[in-house]
Amino acid sequence: MNLSSPVRFIKGVGEARERAFSRMGVKTVEDLLFFFPRRYEDRRNITPLSALTVGSTASVVAQVVSFEKRSTSRQGLEIASVLLSDGEHVIKAIWFNMRKLEDVLTPGVRVALYGKVEMRAGPQLTNPEFEVLDESDPESVGRIVSIYPATAGLSPKWVRRIVSSALELYLPEVGDFVPPEIREKYKFSALRESMMELHRPQGRESWLRARNRLAFDELFLLQTGLLLRKKRRASIQKNSGPLRPGEKFKSFWRSLPFQLTKAQDRCVREIMSDLASEIPMNRLLQGDVGSGKTIVAIAALAIAVDGGAQAAFMAPTEILAQQHFFRLKTLFAKLDVRIDLLTGSLSQGVHKKTLEAISSGETRVVVGTHAIFSAKVSFKELGLVIVDEQHRFGVLQKNALLAKTRSPHVLVMTATPIPRTLTLSIYGDLDVSLLDELPAGRRPIKTHRMDFSRPQQKRLLDFVRDTARRGRQIYWVCPLIEESENLDVTAAYSRFQNLREKLPGLKIALIHGQLPSDEKEAVMTAFTAGETDLLVATSVVEVGVDVPNATVMVIEDAVRFGVAQLHQLRGRVGRGEGESHCVLLAGKTTPEAAARLDALLSTSDGFKLAEMDLRQRGPGEICGVRQHGVTDFRVADLVRDRKLLEAARREAAALVDKDPELKNARPLAEALMSRLGSTLELAGTA
Ligand code: ADP
Ligand code: MG
Q1: Minimum CA distance residue for ligand 1 atom 17
Q2: Domain of 527: which CATH number?
Q3: 546: Cβ below 6 Å to ligand 1?
Q4: Exposure string (b/e) for 77-92, b if CB count within 10 Å is 16 or more?
Q5: 2, 234, 331, 550: which has the highest count of C-beta atoms within 10 A?
Q6: Is 220 inside any structural domain?
Q7: Ligand 1 in contact with 293 (CB < 6 A)?
Q8: Span from the CA of 297 to the centroid of ligand 2 (angstroms)
Q9: How many CA atoms lie within 13 A of 553 on its CB side?
Q10: Does the global pTM surpass 0.85?
Q11: Is 263 a pocket residue for ligand 1 (Cβ < 6 Å)?
Q12: Residue 251 lies in a domain
């Protein structure tokens, strides 16, 4: 029995509880030791019921006086209403649809409750968290009590008890992987003490020190892993020789449709020097919406083609893949390069032929969706992979596709300006090229908020009509309906009908993800050619779509989108010379949603907006790595722990530099393997 044994081996944990623990990510004894409380309740001084203030969140202890249950006329709603007293005053607590409460909250039982105090007929707690107190359980009263993340099938009391006994038995076995010099440098308290402190805090100060130490551990481990991976990559020989620009690149370069910005030029040069090296490129091209990433990618493709390698250019949506495909066709028209489009919805015959051309090496550039990396596709000599809008794919998928090939050069691009803390955590092993400049002549997009009232609707429709009359084009994006893509489509369809009635004379088209591939293509081609005035769309146009003549973006029910999405959608306009507008439609809304809209109204700086998004939604959502686990820290918090992260990065870099094999840091090597081995594909590193 050791730290990596399943929790089931701990006395008292049977199959049911093991399942419950597993839902919380606790699988091994070690996981359990690192399963830290979600919050703490100070039960040393309980607020007497007489001192409760309305609107505050309070922790109270009281005895059940009576229990009553009733159903309302509204179907299925059951209300449990419990009167509690501390001997002098009473408080009411109510719960909706909580089954079996009557078995637990019997008169005479003492309970700790935690929730917001409201004033009804008297003071009341609605749906409070609660715990039946057991006077024989010394951990639950008269001290700071740890409240662990709750899940069905695990009572708080019981979790505390199990964690206590696990701590007693196994804490001594937890080893510290942070090298002693670093521990001394930062004056960290001992690891086991820190873990104990998180489970059973002595006070605010000591708790804070302990949590910082443990947060550092996590960040340091990840940074070491990422830097080692980067180092190891550098030692892999790739299968193609250096890729250098030749005739095709030169011809393309001479006939560029516009003058590159300084930033674009710099990024192309950085990529060029990577491609000419023996070490496979692993680069992130980061630039706000509209900064012109596509042309940089295309320059890289031209170099790859010159160097004799096949190249793949992957986009997250079919619409975007098609757009890239046509653009590439135009730009490479004179170069005699076979380019093929590969998406999931090609007809069987075409699909088969395309696969053959790819594996025979006839196809030099493949543009497509993730279909490019399905099991059936095999390249003859893949030398460069470009992933557009990387954040839409998630890290895992990228790794899956790389596993299929022998270390090609990789360029990932993202329009989500990723805050530095996240870049370091997720892309810590990538080199970064930054497009920090917009093409000349862009005018700032004017952003407006309007509601659905009649006068405003009329104003908006007049504005749309006028825009079309001036020869410009309009996007009208319909709400994203979380529950179902079908509902999205229905909503978009009825808006389409409605706008056709209200705007007679305008050419209006509809696009959504469920249209057959050739129809999508036809709709987009017509819009790009300026044959359509107004395009009603679901959020499929969120990423990448580029029609410079479109100058108005209307986003319906804007509160349903996150900050980053709104920024992306807004980025569909303001791409040409015309003055552009973005209209956010929203009625009355919650304070959080209003704050999101205000943020968009106040700035068009993608980085500022991304920082805000990170705070509101957390890292996983932003970069599409939720399932990936890289940012699933137990203690660390990428928003709050920026300084710690920088320190961890510095220390990890120094260490990896000095001792790349971790010869003098065996515990660290082992921790990397056991905790991050599979996520980072570090097998064989340590
Ligand atoms: P994103 O970075 O969002 O992918 P795109 O590559 O789609 O941006 O470029 C946005 C628009 O700007 C496109 O219409 C593109 O043709 C145009 N563009 C890109 N670079 C320049 C430039 N240097 N000068 C003028 N227009 C440019
Ligand atoms: Mg793009």
Answers
A1: 292
A2: 3.40.50.300
A3: yes
A4: eeebebbbebeeeebb
A5: 550
A6: no
A7: yes
A8: 10
A9: 28
A10: no
A11: no
A12: yes
